[in-house]
UniProtKB/TrEMBL annotation, chain A:
Coiled coil: none annotated. GO terms for cellular component: basal plasma membrane; cytoplasm. GO terms for biological process: xenobiotic detoxification by transmembrane export across the plasma membrane. GO terms for molecular function: transmembrane transporter activity. InterPro entries: OSCP1 (IPR019332). Pfam families: Oscp1. This is Organic solute carrier partner 1.
TrEMBL record, chain B:
It comes from Vombatus ursinus. Keywords: Cell membrane, Cytoplasm, Fertilization, Membrane, Repeat, Ubl conjugation, WD repeat. WD repeats lie at residues 248-282. Plays a role in the adhesion and fusion of the sperm-oocyte membrane through its interactions with IZUMO1 and IZUMO1R/JUNO. When cross-linked to form dimers and trimers, it has a regulatory effect on ERK signaling pathway activity in response to EGF stimulation. Colocalizes with the EGF receptor in WDR54-specific vesicle where it sustains the internalization and controls the degradation of the EGF receptor after EGF stimulation. It is found in: Cell membrane; Cytoplasm; Vesicle. The lineage of its organism: Eukaryota, Metazoa, Chordata, Craniata, Vertebrata. This is WD repeat domain 54. Residues 1-334 form the WD repeat-containing protein 54 beta-propeller domain. One of its GO terms (molecular function) is protein homodimerization activity. Pfam families: WDR54. GO terms for cellular component: cytoplasm; motile cilium; plasma membrane; vesicle.
Amino acid sequence: MSVRSLPLLFLNLGGEMLYILDQRLRAQNIPADKARKDEWTEVDRKRVMNDIITTMFNKKFLEELFKPQELYSRKALRAIYDRLAHCSIMRLNQASMDKLYDLMTMAFKYQVLLCPRPKDVLLVTFNHLDSIKDFIRDSPAIMNQVDETFRQVIEVYGCLSAGEFHLIRQTLLIFFQDMHIRVSIFLKDKIQNSNGRFVLPISGPVPWGTEVPGLIRMFNDKGEEVKRVEFKHGGQYVRAQSEGSFDLYGDRVLTLGTNIYSVSRPVETHVSGASKNSALNTKESTAPNSLAKEELNFLARLMGGMEINKNSGPEPGFRLNLFTTDEEEEHAALTRPEELSYQVINIQAAQDQQRNEELSRIMGEFEVHDQPQQSTSKGDDLLAMMDEL
Amino acid sequence: MYRREPPVSMRAWPAALYNNLCVLSVPAPRLTQFALVHGPNVQLLSAASDGLPLFQRQLHAKEGAGLSFPLVTQAYWCVLPFRVLLVLTSQRGIQMYESDGSVMVYWHALDSGDAPPAQALFARGIAASGHYICVGTWSGRVLVFDVPAKGPNIVLSEELDEHRVPITDIAAEPAQGQDCVADMVTADDSGLLCVWKSGPEFKLLTRISGFGTPCPSVRLWQGTVAAGYGDGQIRIFEASSGALHVQINAHARGICALDLAPEAGKLLSGAEDSFVHIWKLSRNPDSGCIEVEHCHAECVTDTQVCGARFCDPRGSSFAVTGYDLAEILRYSCV
């Protein structure tokens, strides 16, 4: 379908990832003068955020990203975020990474679904980019990179027709299809139902440029209005007050895509599985090999452009846990439903030796070589700290 | 008034596409057949009045060079004078099956031709007019296939080259005699409508210009064009002249599906605002103008409607599908 949807998907999911990581790192950090070597500090948080944003907005990588291309599966895309999340000193294990990706995708699915007009997915993207700029306002070099991308988004998408945005929206919604993970912050805010489906409001402002429903106008052969009849629509809508700004700076009006997490509203650790309606027999699961080949090419192209700073050297990787406790994290890893498994290795579990090697080569760079085994790892005491809060 | 009947449950969630439901009534054992698109495949199922699915079949978009899993854009039963064919459009081309989906009788691959690299290739918009099946494409071109009474000798007989942007939907109705020659209408991404007279050579009768807003769904009834737009508006035009007769602020979000019950003049509209409306069309005996009356509103809670169809020509029952909803909802008159 639309060959223009990948950049929007990547930037928005990336934005959600940064919101979650930022909140988790803030919640776990310790004043520098009190921190042991293995504990998170504000300096570490900034470093992780800077490293990830620098990698995300790498020029060569974005060049590949903005080339017109089809969307690949959620599994393939996850490999990119896996790599992105590990481009700095932070380390996430499988269960935490799964959860991070679940939260990101459900958040953006909600934003795409609730977008007033298909075109407004751009405003959602701008909200994410605005927030990303806020994260790195002390680093002018990275800021330039982000602004460059910002301009590119405006240049590529500013001239697309409404029909093309409809196609982008349809393509994104197909990408998110069959994903019904319940996220507790959404359940608590009553924007998601217990069956995993989102709540669609039938009141409030209509999209910019849309008339409030409820009126029938009839015209004669000369085009003169001859009759007006009102009807009961069933919703409680009002006119939209203003349109969000599609410029580099400005009021986006739309709040979808802004940061919903804060210290007082932490990233909830509870993610529950899909509703049990997964007897789905999609082709994806029946023919993994040909899929893997295309996806590998896709990954190789994109990741080839991702420059990973390999000077993390002898430093221990800092572990970040997306769950409240280690036990919870372990439990999540064990009980994750099969159909939600993202393990990229599964794609190429087949015979093809060469392909195996290719993927290993691509993935190799973000494998956690120096995963801290010793108890001096920074992550370990974070949980204890959390308990005291 | 319409009342909800037991839904038909499915194993797949419909994709958020335009007109993502097709209904074929089988009179003999009183079955209703449904076809809907889920990503790379199409679900066919038939159900009796109690809602229990009796028969299910899955069809896949034909693969080819390049993309492994082309997505299906639409599935539609074309009722021709002597046979019924199920037509699928996808990113790769056009597939025509016997009506139960058992045998593929014809395949037409899309020609990427001189498409610019950023152009998405697909076919979309299907209708049957006489013994012709018309299918729209990404370039705006409409392909006309001549279908024999039986057998696979389907021939591409004509290409209609009026639209410049992707086709969204096509509608047709049997010609109503001398004074009403318009029997097909094509719609596109810019909202442009073209009204045609079908035949060995299709003839363009009128162009009704759009407003830049896509027209995802269009219907034709007794020389009247009903068009549903991406901004929630429904407009009713005189097909022969293109004159606007009715404009309805119908929905708060984009309309995804329109349908017409020809025997009753009822119009069904479904949109992303989670509402389904039923309207009654009639011709004012004095002025001859088309008038519209609102009959029924139905809120399908938390569902972005992507397909809505009447299940009988009198419009006494209809079915609705929604993105992420693993059921076909059914309603009937009380």
